[in-house]
Amino acid sequence: MYCETFDENCHGVTLSCQTCCLATHQCLPLHKIKKWNGKFFEHVTLKQLGLIVWLSHEDMFCYCPEHGHLDFVIIDVNGIHPVNVNFCGCEQCVSHCQQLLQCGWYPATIFSAYEYYHTLECLTDNTGINMLKSQYHPFLCMVHQFCHMKLLKRAGRASKQDGIHTTKPGGLTVLCPACPQPGMNLPDDWKDAEPSKKFLYLLIIAIDANFQLKNCACASDQDPGLHTSLAYFVANGLYNEHVLQFPTQEDISTCNSFRSMAHTETKFATGLHTMDQLPKHLCLPLTIIALLFVFRILKFHAPAHSASCAIPHSLNLLPGVGHTDGKGVEHNWSEINCVTNSTKEMTSSARHDTINDHFSHHNFRKLVGLRCLLHDRLKAAIAE
């Protein structure tokens, strides 16, 4: 069959007949095609031209095909594409889901789901006249699942026996190999080391809060989340029970007034200032705290404290502490603040899943960048 077509995504503008166009795009089913209708070139899909995508076969043909859904749609970076898909039905074939993943058809991480999808709709049909049925909600589900799988991948759960179901609370966090961790980067006898050497194993733990990460919604049993309590948040049930026990609070600061203290009685912070009344399973004996913990003020906050408080608690006077401000926990706030408007209206579990994904991505980039960071700091330390 002869008709003039050309591809907007291929290099250059080459006219071809429909048969040659289909042969060329057998492995390029998401390219955008224009077809001459006798008066002008109009946008058509490769599905309309008769292209069929065969999965799990390099020769693009299967003797036992299983036809995909009639409304099968692929959301790609250049638009939204209806596609004719034939799954492999051979005896040795894998599931339909696995066949799609082998083809690489799964969405990438995005900045804003709504803006991203709206952009794709404009790329598909900027007039909105011939727009396909909205796939926004299925798209959100795919993104949610994809982010969940990335957390499992970064935590190495695929290499564990029954890894998804045996993951313990906090098991999906990205570990930092630069922090002292028994069994990983501490000597076996580190507990018995001389007091003068123990400062080598010093770990600085910064406790702070991002006041822009607020949540207007309440937890919902109908939306349990995919990995709540398995990453950077604790389970909703016990946490909410604990917070509700403290409807009123008193400012315990004996030094100065801070923004966090001024907002302790707001609806977003009620019950959050109960450090001395944590659940029993989270409490440490006072003897352990006295032996293992040394409390200091982060350098950025020191000017807000009185001199009688800031000087004795200065990091500059703590043996073993190098050049650090202790504010590493805040380094990703500029990134996470970009999603505050969307996450504050989510249910609690969906919000946890979304923020977990962003925290995990930040920590993963920090992990792979440690080699350059530590190398530069070693050079600076040697020079000094």
Write a structural description.
This protein has 384 residues and is α+β, with helices and mostly antiparallel strands. It has 3 domains: 106 residues, no CATH class; 61 residues, no CATH class; 214 residues, no CATH class. It is built from 13 helices and 8 strands. The strands form 3 sheets. It has a 3-stranded antiparallel sheet, with no helix packed on it. The protein has a 3-stranded mixed sheet with strand order 4-8-5, with no helix packed on it.
Helix fraction, binned, reads 25-40%
Integer-rounded radius of gyration? 28 Å
The rounded distance between the terminal residues' Cα atoms is 76 Å
**Helix/strand order, N-terminal first:** EHEEEEEEEHHHHHHHHHHHH
- Structurally, the number of domains stands at 3
Unreliable residue stretches: none
What is the general shape? elongated
Number of helices in the DSSP assignment? 13
Count of strand segments: 8
Query: Looking across the biggest beta sheet, what order are the strands in?
Result: 1-2-3
* Class from secondary-structure proportions: alpha+beta
Amount of beta strand = 5-15%
Rounded average pLDDT: 78
What does the main sheet amount to? 3 strands, antiparallel
